[in-house]
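Annual report, structural modelling task.

Input specification for the 5-O-phosphono-beta-D-ribofuranosylamine complex:
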Amino acid sequence: MTAVDKRISVAVLGSGAGSNAAALIDRSSANDSSYQIDLVIATRGDAGIVSVASDRRIPVVVLPAEHWEESLLSALQSHQIAVLALAGFLRKLPESVITLLEGNVLNIHPALLPRFGGQGMYGLHVHTAVIEAGESITGATVHRVTQEYDEGAILAQMSVEVRAGDDPRTLQNRVKTIEHRLYPEIMNVYCQHIRDSTSSPPNNPKPQL
Ligand code: GRF
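The model returned the following structure:
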């Protein structure tokens, strides 16, 4: 395998249905993928993301309720993970994890940040707030992860319309369809940059969508 063929090792961390994990894993099987998903980490054993990973034969670690920071660090180290992709992770990520991965931690948020982000803005709460605010456009954002909720540099966004008659769930479904396009493409560009250069990944990867 040449340096150009080498794929960057990525882990996905979440607690939800796992649809973004599925999209990231499925995209990584393409010939031109710059990354591979080597590990899925879940905060609950009964989360959908666990079966998504098992069905695709990706190793899974379920974090314990206590001392989960140590378990997370040890899982990332033992699998030699270079990039962590959050997808439905509802806690603050410890600084030790961001330091270990040299800042290579991304998240997907189901709205157009900086609007509709921050503590408590997750899942259907986000889509309810968007509808109640009377927005006609919403979308998804991929951003770097920092110590604060939804505050890292924005890497890319895609928008969708809010339709008359939408309820939080129909809107969530529409946003998820673009999340599944956006996240894998940004991950591909991001990891391509890590692989092909010695400099830090750009803050604006400019994917071809
Ligand atoms: C997604 O909507 C993502 O934007 C948010 O959490 C949700 C996870 O969904 N951060 P899934 O588990 O990937 O289906």
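The first strand starts at residue 8 and ends at 14.
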